[in-house]
Amino acid sequence: MDNILKEGKAKGVSVRKVRVSYGAVHVIRELDFEIAPGEFIVLLGASGCGKSTLLSVIAGLRDVSGGQIWIGDENVTWHEPKDRDIGMVFQSYALYPQMTVRGNLSFGLRMTGADKAVIDRRVTEAAEILQLTALLERKPRQLSGGQRQRVAIGRALVRHAGVFLFDEPLSNLDAKLRTELRGELKRLHKQLGTTMIFVTHDQIEALTLADRIAVMEGGVIRQIGTPKEIYRHPQNRFVAGFIGSPSMNFFDGEVQVRGAEATFVGRGFELSLTGYKFATATPIPGKATLGLRPEHVGTRLTGQSLFHASSPIVSAEPMGAETLLWGRLGQDPLSIRVDTLQGFDEASHITFEIDPALVSLFDAQSGQRL
């Protein structure tokens, strides 16, 4: 393990005005962003948003239509994958069924002509880190799904690459195994300090693993930031609606400014915006959309001078430790996430409060955060 730490040197990745097009179809639209050495960044988005294409471009498995890819201080845009100092883990395990775990881990190094002593040491170290030591003489058919994926990760790890790329490596696993592997990947990154780029459509994976998340839509990055920034301060309505489960509540209305006080006027309710941090120094009146996460609707009343309302409970959706209640705010539906032990699922009404500091406001036309 110590030797891996010493020999493997994390490298930064620079994506510079990268475009990928197929005729008139633009899969990636001139992306620009930087990944620091040792950073764990997650490319998050729905199917078809361009995240896997971007990973393939970084890996050298797909050509760019324009722009450059730099790894460390080297322009690798037209380098072969083997010359980019990367290790890659795919969605499918892609293990050789006739080889043992040891054989799968060592195969890439043997193909490069590495010294046998070096191969044995690296395989032993990777097996220790990934808890595969007792499985080295087994074949893939004798392993569980989680064990096979650890072998796939180990096969990349023994390369001592500057950058590791993961293309939805957990999507074929059941929920319990995904949770376990998430924890192992997070531990592995902390232990080795390597640069990792991870593609997923699962926001829980993104929020759990990432140092920063790049949320993608239609071949562009809609926001890049820490999990806390993405969750608490989405920069546009798309990100606000995509992140969070259950999804954010949205209410159409307008921002009205009277003197120094701003108010959101919705359909059948008015919410003072005192305490809300606007993106501009002075609130700008106009049509807007208010976003409110179900977990930010307060049901344990604080007695502070917040917005208070009550609503009949239209329906309740038990989710184990939590329950999703459906009520109304003014004339619009409102989802509220509560602790199941509070017993609201058996009540007919609920009284709640809203803290303006926890809401999000978006311009009705552009969708950008106000």
Automatic annotation (TrEMBL):
Alphabetized UniProt keyword annotations: ATP-binding, Cell inner membrane, Cell membrane, Membrane, Nucleotide-binding, Plasmid, Transport
SMART domains: AAA
Keyword check for Glycoprotein: no
UniProt similarity note: Belongs to the ABC transporter superfamily.
Domain ABC transporter: 13-243
SUPFAM superfamilies membership: MOP-like (SSF50331), P-loop containing nucleoside triphosphate hydrolases (SSF52540)
CDD domains (alphabetical): ABC_MalK_N
Subcellular location: Cell inner membrane
GO cellular component: ATP-binding cassette (ABC) transporter complex, substrate-binding subunit-containing; maltose transport complex
InterPro entries given in the database record: AAA+_ATPase, ABC_transporter-like_ATP-bd, ABC_transporter-like_CS, ABC_transpr_MalK-like, ABC_transpr_MalK/UgpC-like, Mo/tungstate-bd_C_term_dom, NA-bd_OB-fold, OB_MalK-like
Superkingdom classification of source: Bacteria
Record-given protein name: sn-glycerol-3-phosphate import ATP-binding protein
MF terms (GO), sorted A to Z: ABC-type maltose transporter activity; ATP binding; ATP hydrolysis activity
Coiled-coil regions listed: none
Membrane topology note: Peripheral membrane protein
